[in-house]
User: What shape does this take?
Amino acid sequence: MRLKYLLPLIAFIITSITITAQDKTPDWRKLHYLSEEEMHMELDSYKSFIETAPPVAPVRNVAEFDEMQAVLVRYPFGIPMTLVKELADDIEVLTIVANATEEQTVTTQYNNNGVNLDNCSFLYAQSDSYWTRDYGPWFVFDGNNQPGIVDFPYNRPQRPNDNNIPGHIATYLDIDLYGMNLIHTGGNYMTDGLGISSSTELVPEENPSLSDEDIDSLVYHYLGINDYLILTDPLDDYIKHIDCWGKFLSPGKVLIGEVPETDDRYDDFEAVANFFKNTTSSWGELYEVFRVFTPGTPPNTPYTNSLIANNKVFVPLTGSQWDDEAIEAYEAAMPGYGVVGIMYGGWYNTDALHCRAKGVADIEMLYIKHMPILGTVGMQESYEVTADVIAYSGEDIYSDSVLIYYSVNGGSFQSSAMELESGDTWTGTITGAGAGDQVSYYVYAADESAHQARHPYIGEPDPHEFTIFGAQTDEIGFNPDTLVFLTFEDAIDGLPLQIINLKNNSVEILDITPEANEFSEFFWYVDNLPEMPFEIDGKDTLTITVMVGIPLDMMGEMLFDTLTVTTALDSYQAIISVDSDLVTITNQISEKEGLKVYPNPFSDQLRFSFSIEKSEDVHLRIFDLSGKVVFDERSAFDSGSHVMNWAVPHDLKPGNYIYQLNFGDKAKSGKVVLNR
Assistant: This one.
């Protein structure tokens, strides 16, 4: 044990002894950390864990706010009966019991406390503790839309029965079980269901033999996670579980705890909140960050340690003066959800409601995948909405049930039918909105298994919103705003420059300075220059390639120049800098050869089909929008038709990329879109 854990652990043990003595049920296994007995157990490692091949790609990891069919709890309990009663009013409660005798005992308790027994079921399995969140199943759907559970070596090897629970659940549900060899725990994991997940630094600490790349590879292949956010734990306590201070509420929202400015952890909490405020969510916008005051003073304030179960969120309350504010914080962050406070004397700052209850995904859920229209958009006659509607039940979707419900400026919601385009993809339009209007909308669908779904999950109470710009704007930007021409062995003769319409109506470009002038330090010009004037529609991008050549008498210098883009209202400049010592003089590229790039958008592989008239070295490079090279390959080809393939790395973020294919003294470049 590391020294810095020692004092928090001692304090926690003392507190736990006092509470269990009051409950007259002293049990060292109630410790969320390790009991004295467990610390001295002789272990045979993680013998109950079995590693397997990952699910068929692409994999989707189910989020807590996705549809659930049950909530998993365990007897003997670590939760109050009031929580079980509240849950069973709306959702199945699946209770882990050791045998029929325990089932009868629990059934009697449930009956005596008014629990809806019609919504109660039982799983016979041995268990060691009631932290079903920590050892419980992580649900996925594979590339064939089949459900499964991803198991992992539970980071409490002293609790082998707990480690076996995901396997029991997989057998109970008759679904596949996958073994991901990454020591982990559910309390230190949250996911948005769209490829972004987050944990604290506990993960690399508990997996010292794995590099960051190894961890990223595992969560990508087993869970479909493209962006795994490993954050420094601000709580400064022994547990290092993310649910003690943070929670994804939707793909675009996150709840972060807040402490007083006088608290020595204040800067750490603010740093985490600011990180999310400046991070782009899976919905393409910066996270909307909500705060709940969690000072950690007695009575305990473990408010982020809540449970989302479909359209309700259950918040742990302790009698603290901050309980009411916590409920208000959730109501503000999650409009339309039923916010239910659960009072209990057994909640701790590091171990509360979320730790002791775990959602069981609805393995036949109806799922809507949609990239929402958000923020501000340009004025159009209509706004296209596209969504994938997937019935994991395998049942047909009612063709007349896929609808866009929308409202303009707070008016009544009206519906617009969506049509099946191909596969699972449906499209529809929003009409009747004009300049300055605010549009609110959500997508709805139903299938023949009686499942319904909305996007966002709660629908009308908290819909997607966008505002329509009406006034003419003229604001553009550059990405990258500095073009740096470097090389490995050969010159990068041209580098893609993105001219971006930062606003939402068309920007008319009158001129892009294409030739060097008398003040230039080097010779350069713009390749694939469009005919002027040229309009860039709202939030669109024009990709051009800037070509450069360095005179021999200027080699070995750092040279600068500016590219000027002129519009009707203003001129904008991007800086071109050249470390000419790293540039080899080559012929300027202007002539182009036929090239087919497909598929575009792409997800796993991109193909470049081209023809050459003679044997050539063909050089393919892919750039991100900052100009960084993400792929670089050179191959020799004979004359004729050929195909080069780019197998896309799993950790490459979705978005726009630029390709440049060089052969001989010719080149072709353009934009492609990675859409996982």
Summary: Residues 657 and 672 are 5 Å apart (CA to CA). The domain at 591-676 is CATH 2.60.40.1930 (Immunoglobulin-like).
